[in-house]
């Protein structure tokens, strides 16, 4: 389904005057040129939505369906189209292979194109056994001690690159779930060497203008060790592969209280941060809605991302993606909430007075340093988000619009109650 642009305009109209007054209020604190700059940055910012995020979420204990789920890749792209129409921030999709192999590449491309959606990073999957596959990944894939399993996993990643090439994607994300459940299960050095050799084989097949993004995670699905457990290991492997390989940071893939903003700063200074997965967590890799638990943390991370984007030309532009699970929520509502949280943190980080901060840091005025960051964090930047959306034809209040337009009801009428999306 598609929303009639007129419907969005009609929803925006009554709130426009109030919005303008809120925006004027911000102009009493920040210069007009800064506000203009932030609004433009927000309009340009696009976050990819993964093709596996549009179906009902759940945990390993259960899954609660909600009706109107997308039953095909085409419908998933249409759902992203709806979110993009409302927010103007979801202009990309990140495909998971083999869950979402396009049957008709040309048709899928044309559909995405008509909705203003591009194909961001491709995701391979060697954490599950695939139907009819000769080798099992039970004991690992790219790092397995079994050569045939390693070769099959490398082959799969190359196939994902080939599909991505046809779609116009420009990067491959490898999240290697390989690890050990028990001490002594494997030799740490052997599996790391295998992982490196396999990644190099995949890297050799990358098109000239592509990137290889290497994700890390400390534990889960294996509970004793993970082959690529932290940013240092990923960084080392990316360096071993070459200049087109980068580290990908997933917010949930850290042990509790890890200083993620420092990791971001370190990687960007080395020009090696390539991708970013958004989510939030309380205990582990909870994949909660972005900004739902630790919004100040998210702001501090964005503060480093903005600094890096402005000061590290050696770092490439990043592949942004939401990697969360809505669990009991309507996924589309959850994704709208996540996009809002991302833009809020980004806008706040753009408001940080960097000159004043530098001066306070040089003068070791610790109190002032904290005040400068928190001044930005405590600013209600939502009028800036609304202004950006208003200018690009989105809804000023996307979540409210989603509800008022009764999108879920319309999707259920169109697709029924019983469809089940492919994926986890
Ligand atoms: Mn991830």
TrEMBL record:
The residues covered by the Xylose isomerase-like TIM barrel domain are: 102-287
> One Pfam match, by short name?
AP_endonuc_2
Keywords noted in UniProt: Isomerase, Manganese, Metal-binding
Q: Please provide, alphabetically and separated by semicolons, the GO molecular function terms listed in this UniProt record.
A: isomerase activity; metal ion binding
**PANTHER family linked to this entry:** L-RHAMNOSE ISOMERASE
Name this protein carries in UniProt: Sugar isomerase
Taxonomic classification, please? Answer: Bacteria, Pseudomonadati, Bacteroidota, Flavobacteriia, Flavobacteriales
């Amino acid at each position: 389904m598609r929303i009639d642009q007129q419907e969005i305009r009609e929803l925006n109209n009554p709130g426009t005057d109030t919005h303008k007054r809120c925006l004027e209020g911000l102009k009493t604190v920040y210069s007009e040129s800064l506000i203009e700059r932030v609004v433009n940055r927000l309009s340009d910012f696009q976050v990819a939505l993964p093709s596996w995020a549009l179906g009902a979420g759940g945990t390993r204990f259960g899954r609660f369906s909600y009706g109107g789920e997308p039953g095909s890749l085409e419908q998933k792209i249409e759902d992203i189209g709806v979110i993009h129409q409302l927010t103007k921030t979801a202009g990309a999709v990140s495909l998971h292979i083999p869950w979402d192999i396009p049957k008709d590449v040309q048709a899928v491309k044309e559909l995405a194109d008509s909705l203003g959606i591009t194909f961001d990073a491709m995701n391979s999957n060697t954490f599950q056994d695939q139907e009819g596959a000769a080798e099992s990944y039970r004991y690992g894939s790219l790092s397995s001690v079994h050569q045939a399993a390693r070769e099959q996993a490398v082959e799969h990643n190359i196939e994902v690159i080939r599909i991505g090439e046809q779609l116009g994607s420009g990067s491959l994300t490898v999240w290697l779930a390989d690890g050990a459940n028990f001490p002594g299960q494997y030799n740490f050095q052997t599996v790391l060497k295998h992982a490196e050799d396999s990644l190099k084989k995949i890297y050799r097949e990358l098109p000239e203008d592509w990137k290889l993004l290497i994700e890390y995670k400390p534990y889960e699905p294996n509970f004793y060790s993970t082959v690529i457990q932290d940013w240092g290991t990923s960084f080392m492997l990316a360096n071993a592969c070459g200049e087109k390989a980068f580290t990908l940071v997933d917010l949930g893939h850290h042990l509790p209280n890890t200083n993620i903003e420092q990791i971001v700063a370190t990687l960007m200074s080395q020009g090696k941060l390539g991708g970013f997965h958004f989510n939030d967590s309380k205990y582990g890799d909870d994949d909660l809605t972005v900004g739902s638990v630790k919004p100040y943390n998210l702001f501090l991370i964005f503060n480093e991302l903005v600094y890096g984007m402005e000061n590290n030309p050696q770092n490439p532009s990043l592949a942004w993606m939401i990697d969360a699970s809505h669990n009991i929520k309507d996924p589309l509502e959850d994704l709208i909430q996540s996009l809002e949280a991302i833009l809020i943190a980004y806008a706040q980080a753009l408001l940080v007075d960097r000159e004043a901060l530098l001066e306070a840091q040089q003068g070791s005025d610790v109190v002032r340093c904290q005040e400068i960051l928190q001044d930005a964090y405590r600013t209600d930047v939502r009028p800036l988000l609304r202004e950006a959306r208003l200018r690009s034809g989105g809804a000023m209040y996307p979540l409210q619009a989603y509800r008022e337009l009764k999108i879920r009801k319309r999707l259920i009428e169109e697709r029924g109650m019983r469809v089940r999306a492919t994926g986890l």
